[in-house]
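Late entry, written up from scratch paper. The run itself happened at the end of the previous shift, but nothing got recorded in the book at the time, so transcribing now.
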Amino acid sequence: MGISSNSAASTKPVGSMRINLFFAIVLIVMTSYFLWWGLDYTMRQQTTLFIVATAFGVFMAFNIGGNDVANSFGTSVGAGTLTIPQALGVAAIFEVSGAVLAGGSVTNTIRKGIVDLDGLSVSPNQFIYVMLSALIAAAFWLLFATKKGLPVSTTHSIIGGVVGSSIVLGITLGGTDMALSTVNWTTIGTIAISWVLSP
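Output as recorded:
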């Protein structure tokens, strides 16, 4: 009795070493280029903070890839329409295209619309720490959710991280009375309505 084509395909290793090496080299080159460009752009100020933010940004990107690509291409790979390397290639092209073409407005909403710092004496470094802690929290939540097989939204995750870190900033600045004052709840309501209406 011979092995059927389905069982032979299921024992095939995921991806080839050559493709994995290619993606690893692309990651290293792109991260190195970004660090080189970013350090020049920031005039080498706050170098340690920039490197830490970049490291967690790459970690977040891995988690977004692991979660969003699985959500988008799980059925295609499972049905045999696309191989895993093909799905990764398509996802890389369209994820980067989406970030480049539409990411600016989303980033502006997250950066300016959610945190309400009017009337508060917040230093630029405090704001950096708020956003960095939101990034770290969202990245670890995505890692946990992906490991557990939970198809969570990366947008929900980062917005939750920003809201949580903003609440902690409010508590730090003025105690529990200011806990909710650092969040622009009108923007949060608009975002939540768009989540419900968009499907």
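The chain is about 75% helix and 0% strand.
(Scratch paper discarded after transcription.)
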